[in-house]
Design a protein that fits this description.
It is a single chain. By secondary structure, the chain is an alpha+beta fold. The chain has one domain: D-amino Acid Aminotransferase, Chain A, domain 1 (2-Layer Sandwich), CATH 3.30.470. The chain contains 5 helices and 8 strands. Strands 1, 2, 3, 4, 5, 6, 7 and 8 form an 8-stranded antiparallel β-sheet that branches. It is globular. The protein starts with 15 loop residues before the first strand and ends with a strand.
């Protein structure tokens, strides 16, 4: 069941969606999976002010060409962090807002480990399931779309991420300079993980823009 978020944080009077990336890599030999969260993301701002619920790329496409419809540029997470720091605490911002947001995003990503498990064991085109990609060292990149409320459901202050969508096949095309700044490092570092694992014999805690989540060692289904 879905519900609207009534007290969402607004930027310049607009709702927005935050897209971050969850990278899942697996080892053919152990066989274990490790999940990484990207340290950067993209901010998709609404076309129609505060009444739009989902401002993600897919939602913008449903309204036709985002550029033709006058969609604002999609800045990266660094821009959002500056905006949150400048907002008063009662509106979900303040000096600790960024720290709170990241803590809660990592928690959400950890809880989504089971979602990644399901996604990676579903058929992918002509492949019976994506576990057969492990011998090839191919990482899986998932897109996480969230909207932020001003506080947690229990009333704790600071941005609270509400999951809108887990995208199994997020668009990784480069439509703007901010796309290149965010997506290229995610793709590059995801592929570098395979080489690092083979050389070092273990998954690194951090590689480039990717930071491991404490779900390392989760074994895939045979």
């Amino acid at each position: 069941m879905q519900q609207d978020v009534a007290d969402c944080i607004l930027l310049e009077g607009r709702r927005f969606t935050l897209r971050v990336y969850l990278v899942v890599v697996e080892d053919e030999c152990t066989p274990a999976r490790c999940c990484y969260l990207s340290s950067n993301g993209l901010v998709y701002r609404a076309l129609e002010g505060s009444e739009v619920t989902n401002c993600s790329q897919s939602a913008l496409k449903l309204r036709g060409s985002a550029q033709a419809a006058g969609a604002p540029p999609s800045p990266d997470l660094r821009w959002l962090e500056a905006q949150l720091a400048a907002l008063p605490s009662e509106l979900g911002g303040g000096p600790l807002a960024v720290e709170v947001l990241w803590r809660r995003l990592r928690r959400l990503a950890r809880l989504l480990a089971t979602t990644a498990e399901v996604a990676l064991n579903e058929p992918m085109g002509e492949l019976a399931n994506s576990s057969v990609l492990a011998p090839l060292g191919i990482p899986k990149i998932l897109g996480l779309d969230v909207i932020l409320s001003r506080c947690s459901p229990s009333g704790s202050p600071g941005p609270w991420p509400w999951l809108l969508e887990v995208n199994r096949f997020p668009g990784l095309g480069l439509r703007s300079p901010s796309d290149a700044c965010v997506k290229l490092p995610v793709v590059r570092d995801a592929w570098n993980l395979a080489d690092t694992r083979e050389a070092a014999g273990c998954w690194p805690v951090k590689l480039g823009c990717l930071e491991a989540l404490p779900v390392t060692g989760r074994r895939r289904r045979s």
